[in-house]
Amino acid sequence: MGSEIARLGFGKMQHGCEHYKRRCKIRAPCCGEIFGCRHCHNEATAETDRHQLPRHDVQKVICLVCDTEQPVAKICSNCGVNMGEYFCNVCKFYDDDTRKEQFHCDDCGICRVGGGENYFHCPKCGSCYGLALQNMHECVENSMKHHCPICYEYLFDSLRETRILKCGHTMHKECFDDMIRHNQYACPICYKSSVDMSLSWRTLDAEVEATVMPAEYRYKLVWILCNDCTKTSEVFFHIVGQKCPHCKSYNTRTAAAPNSTVTK
């Protein structure tokens, strides 16, 4: 019994690719070539006949301990090693590094990391989110099934951490952090403020108060659309910025005047 357990663990964390520690490679069902994982395949084909490996269609794996090709299974049929400490027969996914706390989400249809007890599946957004966001986020239909608006990588099955903005749109956390470092505080998709801007708005209030407009512009009226509350208003033009009278945001843009009602 002890020798069987030792055999199962033979080579654990000693094999794999840059993406995963595992004791097998996969034969891609789309092109028939052998790769360390689906990410290795997708990167290798990115500059040639670009195509994605359909993870659920993998049928064959090659044990990295004994080099035996065989149908997808957790344990090698020839040498008896555990080809992945974590194994999902749905995703055909192997990983020896269980510190990631992998789990399979039936609603997402893929495996995720972080421990299933720490996540919930939002049916409208179409993805798993941390429990801290349950009933605390703005739902956007299939928000994760889109490309990051900064780097354009597909978000749903990305290996990189994602962030859900106040508006409900999503992007990579590192892309969001880079956006903030470049003083860009609005969602690139809907232009709503992505962070608390109240301090900035108070600073702009002071600038407006201290900046006297020339006489010819002092009473000039313009129509604005607020990106934050989406309301349209007519306000006095100011070179510093136009403040929304409804939500007090300066995240506004000039807009055409609403169509006036014609009466007879």
Overall description:
This protein is an alpha+beta fold and 264 residues long. It is built from 4 helices and 15 strands. The strands form 6 sheets. A 4-stranded antiparallel beta sheet has the order 2-1-3-4. A 3-stranded antiparallel beta sheet has the order 14-13-15, with no helix packed on it. Strands 5-6 form a two-stranded antiparallel ribbon. The model has no long low-confidence stretch (mean pLDDT 93).
Structure summarized in a few sentences:
This protein is of the alpha+beta class. The chain has helices at residues 2-8, 38-44, 173-181, 198-210, and strands at residues 24-27, 34-35, 60-63, 69-71, 86-88, 93-95, 103-105, 110-112, 119-122, 127-130, 162-164, 170-172, 221-226, 232-236, 252-254.
Give short descriptive properties of this protein.
alpha+beta, three-stranded antiparallel beta sheet, four-stranded antiparallel beta sheet, 4 helices, 15 strands, 264 residues
Number of helices: 4
How large is the share of residues in beta strands?
15-25%
Instruction: Count the E strands.
Output: 15
- The helicity comes to 10-25%
Calculate the terminal CA-CA distance, rounded to whole Å. Answer: 95 Å
Sheet with the most strands? Answer: 4 strands, antiparallel
Taking strands numbered 1, 2, ... along the chain, how are they ordered across the largest sheet? 2-1-3-4
What Rg do the Cα atoms give? 27 Å
**Low-pLDDT ranges:** none
Could you report the average pLDDT, rounded to the nearest whole number? 93
